[in-house]
Write a structure and sequence with these properties.
Blueprint lengths: L1 H10 L18 E8 L15 E4 L5 H12 L4 E3 L37 E6 L2 E7 L13 H23 L8 H25 L5 H23 L1
Parallel strand pairs: 2-4
Antiparallel strand pairs: 1-3, 1-5, 4-5
Length: 230
């Protein structure tokens, strides 16, 4: 059980983590309708040129239609694609392979030019100028929760240390009670760590609070275990 928990923390990226991927760049997968016009000739946006890609709505792939529909039906004409990590068993958003090929995503100054981020879509006599990606290159990493990530991982490893200690120096009580406590605690923590991405995905519990629960539960549990039970 100790080896399983250690392997969980060091080799499986889904342990106590978010199911959603973050590029570290703000706006990387944004979609924004920046102009609506009666037809292509009426478009006034300066970024639309003869080289701008133009699609009829019916020509779009199903996922491109879905992204476009979510964008134009939003109150602010904007929609952001959220990506699931590839290791997730199920995804309520999009995998990277689902991102529509018709639209270009990225950040100017990072991997695309500004002209690449504009597409025109015609539908039922209207023309829409769709801007995708980010016009600027701004870092978006949020490291505020890093101490909690480290502490929760270290405390899961602490449970592994307790298991190893009890294997080398078993309690002097008779019976298999402590073995049951060891196995039960390790199984409970390991299962919870694996479930965290999906608890977050299904809006049951946030990753932040999951890590706090693991950190607090293990810290308190080890103290009770050694001072009251062992």
């Amino acid at each position: 059980m100790a080896l399983a928990l250690i392997g969980l923390i060091f080799s499986y990226p889904g342990a106590i983590s978010s199911p959603y991927s973050d590029t570290g760049l703000d706006g990387y997968y944004d979609n924004q309708i920046v102009e609506r016009a009666n037809d292509i000739e009426s478009i006034e946006h300066s970024a639309v040129t003869d080289e701008t890609s133009v699609y009829q709505y019916n020509e779009l792939s199903p996922v491109a239609k879905e992204v476009f529909d979510k964008t134009r039906s939003a109150a602010d004409d904007s929609f952001t694609i959220v990506l699931c990590h590839e290791w997730t068993l199920t995804c309520d958003e999009y995998y990277e392979s689902d991102v529509p090929d018709e639209f270009q995503y990225g950040a100017v100054g990072h991997n695309v030019d500004e002209s690449e981020l504009y597409t025109v879509v015609e539908d039922e006599g209207e023309a829409y100028v769709l801007q995708t990606g980010a016009l600027g290159h701004a870092d978006g990493w949020n490291l505020a929760g890093l101490p909690l990530v480290i502490s929760s991982s270290l405390l899961v490893l602490l449970v592994s240390g307790v298991l190893v200690h009890n294997t080398i120096r078993p309690p002097e009580q008779s019976g298999n009670g402590f073995a049951a406590w060891d196995i039960g605690a390790a199984f409970l923590i390991g299962t919870f760590a694996l479930a965290v991405p999906y608890l977050h995905m299904w809006d049951i519990l946030s990753v932040y609070w999951s890590r706090r629960l693991i950190t607090g539960g293990v810290a308190l549990g080890v103290l009770v275990y050694y001072y009251r039970l062992r």
